[in-house]
Structures are given as C-alpha cells and as structure tokens.
Amino acid sequence: VKWRVMALERTYAMVKPDGVKRGLVGEVLRRLEHKGFKIVGMKLMQIPRATAEEHYGEHRGKPFFEGLVSFITSGPVVAMVVEGENAIAEWRKMMGATNPKDAAPGTLRGDFAATIDENIVHGSDAPETAEREIGIFFKPEELL
Ligand code: RTP
Ligand code: MG
C-alpha cells in the first residue's frame, strides 16, 4: 500500500488589482469555497510600495520588477489566507500558469486573464513562501 500524506496547509492568496477592478472577487471566492477551502483571513487593501517590494523581493532586479510593483500597488487587492489539504499546490492549480497563453481552460488565469502582467490572482509557490507572505500581509490575530 502506498500512503500519501495529506498536509493541512495555509497559503497566501490574493485577487490582484485587475481582478478587483473587473469584478472577479466573487468568482474567485466562489471557486475557493466550492473547492472546500477555508478562508481564515481576508481584507481589502491597497498595498504600500515597500510592502509590494518585499512581497515580490525574489524578482528584484528583473526587467519586469518595476512594472510588477506599480501594477500590484495600482488599486485595491483582496488579500486572503486560505487553509486546506495541500492548499499551496491546489490553489496554484486553480490559478493556472503565470502566462495566460499557457493557462488551461478552467483555471482562473485561463478563463479570465489576457496578459502575463495582469493575471488576476496570486498564490504562494512553496511552504516557506506561504509562511513569509502570510506574515507580510497578516498579523496572527487577524487569522480566525
Ligand atoms: P504571482 O507570484 O504573481 O502569483 O505569479 P507567479 O508565481 O505565477 O509568477 P512569478 O514568476 O512569481 O512572477 C510574478 C509576476 O511577475 C510577472 N512576470 N512577468 N514578463 C515576464 O517574463 C514575467 N514573468 C513574471 C507576472 O505578472 C507574474 O504574475
Ligand atoms: Mg510568484
């Protein structure tokens, strides 16, 4: 018998400014809830520039960094902490590939995004990233 250990994880999920502007907050929440994820933290916020630079720190120095920080601070986002079995990888699957041209139909980016620069949603890409990003956006007492 092969046992697969399921991990109850938390991930940082976010509806980016384009998703909020286009009225896709409800669609994103619908999909997360239908998938059985639990929302343990959620807020509408405009990300301060310094916070955006910290959040996307791994991309500092890349040609798209400035544009990325400008975009993510350009309007309100919905910041969330989502909990569930294998939540990190599962939410990435639901998001779809970074470039919407490669994102499968049925994924949020595949269904709604048009460009790599404005791709609706964010999700942590690894357990260490999730912990770091949750800490950037939420105080412990904001997680219920
Ligand atoms: P995110 O962090 O926003 O959830 O997206 P991701 O993991 O799928 O992609 P990542 O590699 O972390 O890149 C962050 C965001 O930067 C923009 N990007 N542009 N022009 C490019 O080659 C390029 N590569 C990345 C995208 O908007 C991506 O979501
Ligand atoms: Mg990323």
Automatic annotation (TrEMBL):
<dbReference type="InterPro" id="IPR001564">
    <property type="entry name" value="Nucleoside_diP_kinase"/>
</dbReference>
<feature type="binding site">
    <location>
        <position position="92"/>
    </location>
    <ligand>
        <name>ATP</name>
    </ligand>
</feature>
<feature type="binding site">
    <location>
        <position position="119"/>
    </location>
    <ligand>
        <name>ATP</name>
    </ligand>
</feature>
<keyword id="KW-0963">Cytoplasm</keyword>
<keyword id="KW-0597">Phosphoprotein</keyword>
<dbReference type="GO" id="GO:0005524">
    <property type="term" value="F:ATP binding"/>
</dbReference>
<dbReference type="GO" id="GO:0005737">
    <property type="term" value="C:cytoplasm"/>
</dbReference>
<keyword id="KW-0418">Kinase</keyword>
<dbReference type="GO" id="GO:0006228">
    <property type="term" value="P:UTP biosynthetic process"/>
</dbReference>
<dbReference type="InterPro" id="IPR034907">
    <property type="entry name" value="NDK-like_dom"/>
</dbReference>
<keyword id="KW-0460">Magnesium</keyword>
<feature type="active site" description="Pros-phosphohistidine intermediate">
    <location>
        <position position="122"/>
    </location>
</feature>
<feature type="binding site">
    <location>
        <position position="98"/>
    </location>
    <ligand>
        <name>ATP</name>
    </ligand>
</feature>
<keyword id="KW-0067">ATP-binding</keyword>
<feature type="binding site">
    <location>
        <position position="16"/>
    </location>
    <ligand>
        <name>ATP</name>
    </ligand>
</feature>
<dbReference type="InterPro" id="IPR036850">
    <property type="entry name" value="NDK-like_dom_sf"/>
</dbReference>
<feature type="domain" description="Nucleoside diphosphate kinase-like">
    <location>
        <begin position="8"/>
        <end position="144"/>
    </location>
</feature>
<dbReference type="InterPro" id="IPR023005">
    <property type="entry name" value="Nucleoside_diP_kinase_AS"/>
</dbReference>
<keyword id="KW-0546">Nucleotide metabolism</keyword>
<feature type="binding site">
    <location>
        <position position="64"/>
    </location>
    <ligand>
        <name>ATP</name>
    </ligand>
</feature>
<dbReference type="Pfam" id="PF00334">
    <property type="entry name" value="NDK"/>
</dbReference>
<dbReference type="GO" id="GO:0006183">
    <property type="term" value="P:GTP biosynthetic process"/>
</dbReference>
<feature type="binding site">
    <location>
        <position position="109"/>
    </location>
    <ligand>
        <name>ATP</name>
    </ligand>
</feature>
<comment type="function">
    <text>Major role in the synthesis of nucleoside triphosphates other than ATP. The ATP gamma phosphate is transferred to the NDP beta phosphate via a ping-pong mechanism, using a phosphorylated active-site intermediate.</text>
</comment>
<dbReference type="GO" id="GO:0046872">
    <property type="term" value="F:metal ion binding"/>
</dbReference>
<keyword id="KW-0479">Metal-binding</keyword>
<comment type="subunit">
    <text>Homotetramer.</text>
</comment>
<keyword id="KW-0808">Transferase</keyword>
<comment type="similarity">
    <text>Belongs to the NDK family.</text>
</comment>
<dbReference type="GO" id="GO:0004550">
    <property type="term" value="F:nucleoside diphosphate kinase activity"/>
</dbReference>
<protein>
    <recommendedName>
        <fullName>Nucleoside diphosphate kinase</fullName>
        <ecNumber>2.7.4.6</ecNumber>
    </recommendedName>
</protein>
<keyword id="KW-0547">Nucleotide-binding</keyword>
<dbReference type="GO" id="GO:0006241">
    <property type="term" value="P:CTP biosynthetic process"/>
</dbReference>
